[in-house]
Design brief:
Pathway: Amine and polyamine degradation; spermine degradation. Its cofactor is FAD. InterPro entries: Amino_oxidase (IPR002937), FAD/NAD-bd_sf (IPR036188), Flavin_amine_oxidase (IPR001613), Flavin_monoamine_oxidase (IPR050281). Keywords: Oxidoreductase, Signal. By secondary structure, the chain is of the alpha/beta class. Helices cover 36% and strands 21% of the residues. The protein is globular, with a radius of gyration of 27 Å. It starts with a strand and ends in an 11-residue tail after the last helix.
């Protein structure tokens, strides 16, 4: 048995939901959303920890306070989403060495300024170079940071504060302020609010048959007449078009197969895009032992290994009395921690905290370690396009292949890696699909006429018009 629809959307993250909303609003109501997990949200996910909700994935609304309004900030404002302003600027002045001493402000400021100047100079020197050799020359020309404070600053600069080095559209267009989501409903409530506008819901639950959860799509078969989607449990779905809103990490994996295979230009573009792994580890303590005054929400640990439990944040601003610390790991450190037990990670984190705050601090009572890299439905946190890349790479990742369209934050030309990037990408993809469907409808009469002419030329008249007698000769 198969289920039919005009459009099937694979994935119910913010891109998939916004794409479906645009389609329904424009009259394409027989949309079908297939989601691999038991919830909507994708990489926006909350979980209760230490009696408060914490955001495992996307946690901030970045880009607020500019002349142009961030669309996700508008959604949050309409939903009365509770947020807290995050000021990262003081983090660089709260850098601890392994003996628990804070580096003097002058040393930290000087090291940070040198790191920023070096990065900007490197970028400018590569502007005139062609794409192929730029990466190699950048690597050869760079002088890597060596001391613990240099490594720590390099980490916060490139993993957290890229706007300081390279102007990013998010901050240029929407503003430089960032707000941490601290709402009991979670960041994901914005998706449920969107879904309520076009799906049937009751008491906060989505009961619409157009959303099917726990449907792991494994194969997408495309033909001239439509698309067939097959899931892991043997279900079969048919549609005229498909929108794939799976993450770039999933597209790089072997979870989804396409028949016929995607063209080479498409697969090469997908594989060239980097995937950022961003892991927020949550630790619960019986009481606070860290500074909580103004300008002390974030603090840094300087270690000989880059990114080793470097960036810390306390949750007292968001949830007073929660006694929760968050440490952020990225990329190789994230993958390393995902591969070991939570108890091993807890032991490492406690060793770092005792370096900073002394051996008498209490042991954590609980730990939460998200595993985005090993999650086969995510395979990472967000796309990370090379700093030196051509526009063709993104365009090829974004481009449809026949009846298969692609969306997600990785297809956003200006806002890849951000929640608003995913939101806007879903809308843009649906608008492109609607235009394609409109053109297809306009072409159908012409195609039908052409086919009838072909049929007339190739088929005896007696078969086309069986009730008419034909005579030879000129009339």
């Amino acid at each position: 048995m198969s289920t039919t629809a005009s459009v099937i959307i694979i994935g119910a993250g913010i891109s998939g939901i916004s794409a479906a909303k645009v389609l329904v609003e424009n009259g394409v109501e027989d949309v079908l959303i297939l989601e691999a997990t038991d919830r909507i949200g994708g990489r926006i996910q909350k979980q209760n920890f230490g009696d408060v909700p914490v955001e495992l994935g996307a946690g901030w609304i970045a880009g607020v306070g500019g002349k142009e309004s961030n669309p996700v900030w508008e959604l949050a404002s309409r939903s009365n989403l509770r947020t807290c302003f995050s000021d990262y600027t003081n983090a660089r002045f709260n850098i601890y060495d392994r003996s628990g001493e804070i580096f003097p402000t002058g040393i930290a400021a000087d090291s940070y300024t040198k790191a920023v100047d070096s990065a900007i100079s490197k970028l400018k020197s590569l502007e005139a170079l062609d794409y192929e050799c730029a990466g190699q020359l950048a690597e050869e020309a760079s002088s890597p940071p060596k001391t613990p404070i240099e490594l720590a600053i390099d980490f916060i600069l490139h993993d957290f504060e890229m706007a300081e080095v390279e102007p990013i559209s998010t901050y240029v267009d929407f503003g430089e302020r960032e707000f941490l989501v601290a709402d009991e409903r979670g960041y994901e409530c914005l998706l449920y609010k969107m879904a309520e506008e076009f799906l049937f819901t009751s008491h906060g639950n989505i009961l619409d048959n157009r959303l099917k959860l726990n449907q792991v799509v494994r194969e997408v078969q495309q033909s001239r007449n439509g698309v067939v989607v097959k899931t892991e449990d043997g279900s079969v779905y048919e549609a005229n078009y498909v929108i794939v809103s799976a993450s770039i990490g999933v597209l790089q994996s072997n979870l989804l197969s396409f028949q016929p295979p995607l063209p080479r230009w498409k697969t090469e573009a997908i594989q060239k895009c980097d995937v950022m792994v961003y892991t927020k580890i949550f630790l619960k303590f019986p009481h606070c032992f860290w500074p909580c005054g103004p300008g002390q929400e974030f603090f840094i640990y300087a270690h000989e290994l880059r990114g080793y439990f470097t960036f810390w944040q306390h949750m007292e601003n968001a949830y007073p009395g929660s006694n929760i610390l968050v440490v952020t790991l990225t990329n190789e450190q994230s993958k390393r921690v995902e591969a070991q037990s939570d108890q091993e990670t807890l032991k490492e984190a406690m060793s770092v905290l005792r370096d900073m705050f002394g051996s008498t601090i209490p042991y954590a009572t609980d730990i939460l370690v998200p595993r985005w890299w090993n999650n086969r439905f995510q395979r990472g946190s967000y796309s990370n396009y090379p700093m030196i890349s051509d526009n063709k790479l993104l365009q090829n990742i974004k481009a449809p292949v026949g009846r298969i369209f692609f969306t997600g934050e990785h297809t956003s030309e200006k806002f890849s890696g951000y929640v608003h990037g995913g939101y806007l990408a879903g809308m843009e993809t649906s608008k492109s699909l609607l235009e394609e469907m409109k053109q297809s409808l306009l072409l159908q009469p012409l195609l039908a006429f052409t086919e009838s002419l072909t049929l007339t030329q190739q088929t005896p008249n007696s078969q086309i018009y069986p009730n008419v007698n034909f005579i030879s000769g000129r009339s």
